[in-house]
Amino acid sequence: MRIGVYPGTFDPITRGHTDIVARSLHLFDRLFLAVAPNPRKEPLLSIAHRVELAKIATKEFPHVEVEPFDGLLVKYVRDRGAHAIIRGLRALSDFEHEFQMALLNRKIDEQLETVFLMPSEEFSYLTSSIVKELAMFGGPLEDFVHPEVANKLRQCYTKHP
Ligand code: PNS
């Protein structure tokens, strides 16, 4: 059985992320979507909310498990018996950081591969940050995120304008 780990901050999960989930399931039998704290970013949503929304947004996909994770990604991947890390690559601007992470992870574990998947063109410009900015200014969200994610974001910005 081929097991993949799709890690990220998912603050919040977007349709670009779920597009990568769908593509991953063509390559892997089972997928762990791992929601990370990421100290380099200050997430809008708590990890519990990000996990909850990721579960809702991926409920149509069988063989996907959403979990919070903290600590070293390589260790998490090993603990799950997974074979590869999956990352979405949208544009050239993603490349340098992704390249660093993939090589660092491989340095820690020589056996570990990172698989880069390109999202559908329609999501190639989509980021969680853009979605949050749209939400902050009351823009339309349903084309970019699951309706329940859209509702949650609107609530956040109504409470904290
Ligand atoms: O969605 P993001 O913010 O690009 O995800 C980044 C993430 C969570 C995959 C990355 O920060 C990560 O792997 N964090 C876990 C800690 C770790 O193992 N760091 C070393 C590899 S960079």
Automatic annotation (TrEMBL):
A family per Pfam: CTP_transf_like
This protein's UniProt keywords: ATP-binding, Coenzyme A biosynthesis, Cytoplasm, Magnesium, Nucleotide-binding, Nucleotidyltransferase, Transferase
Binding positions (substrate): T9, K41, L73, R87
Please name the top-level EC class of this enzyme: transferase
So which cofactors does this thing need?
Mg(2+)
Q: In which pathway does it act?
A: Cofactor biosynthesis; coenzyme A biosynthesis; CoA from (R)-pantothenate: step 4/5
Q: What is its EC number?
A: 2.7.7.3
Give the source's domain of life in one word: Bacteria
Q: Which reaction does it catalyse?
A: (R)-4'-phosphopantetheine + ATP + H(+) = 3'-dephospho-CoA + diphosphate
Compartments it resides in: Cytoplasm
Q: Where is this site: Transition state stabilizer?
A: H17
Q: Which GO terms describe its molecular function?
A: pantetheine-phosphate adenylyltransferase activity
The UniProt entry, under InterPro entries, shows: Cyt_trans-like, PPAT, Rossmann-like_a/b/a_fold
Q: Where does ATP bind?
A: T9, F10, H17, G88, L89, R90, E98, F123, S124, Y125, L126, T127, S128, S129
Domain Cytidyltransferase-like, first and last residues per copy:
5-133
The UniProt entry, under NCBIfam families, shows: coaD_prev_kdtB, cyt_tran_rel
Q: Per its UniProt record, what PANTHER family does this chain match? A: PHOSPHOPANTETHEINE ADENYLYLTRANSFERASE (PTHR21342:SF1)
Family assignment from sequence similarity: Belongs to the bacterial CoaD family.
Quaternary form? Answer: Homohexamer.
Reported function: Reversibly transfers an adenylyl group from ATP to 4'-phosphopantetheine, yielding dephospho-CoA (dPCoA) and pyrophosphate.
Q: What is this protein called?
A: Phosphopantetheine adenylyltransferase
Provenance organism? Candidatus Nitronereus thalassa
**Gene designation per UniProt:** coaD
